[in-house]
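Q: what sequence does this backbone want?
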């Protein structure tokens, strides 16, 4: 996926966790302002498979690996920051 330019409802380039909560995967995705579809690519956090994303846009945003069926959850950034702060306090 190259550089994304234009007007978008949603753009992300996020690391995602595997079952052991290790940041081993990645999701790059965008939703054009005039569409309700997500486009992009991912690297599965569980098996390392590289795949393309083209699915309906909805929250919560999840991507399912085509190879191992692992579901990568991409939480809202503000929710992720709150969870990270709680983990840091422990």
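A:
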């Amino acid at each position: 996926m190259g550089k994304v330019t234009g007007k978008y409802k949603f753009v992300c380039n996020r690391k995602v966790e595997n079952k052991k909560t290790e940041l081993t995967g990645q999701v790059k995705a965008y939703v054009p302002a005039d569409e309700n579809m997500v486009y992009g690519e991912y690297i599965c956090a569980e098996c390392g498979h590289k795949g393309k994303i083209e699915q309906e846009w909805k929250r919560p945003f999840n991507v399912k690996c085509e190879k191992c069926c692992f579901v990568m959850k991409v939480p809202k950034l503000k929710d992720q920051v709150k969870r990270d702060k709680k983990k840091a306090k422990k």
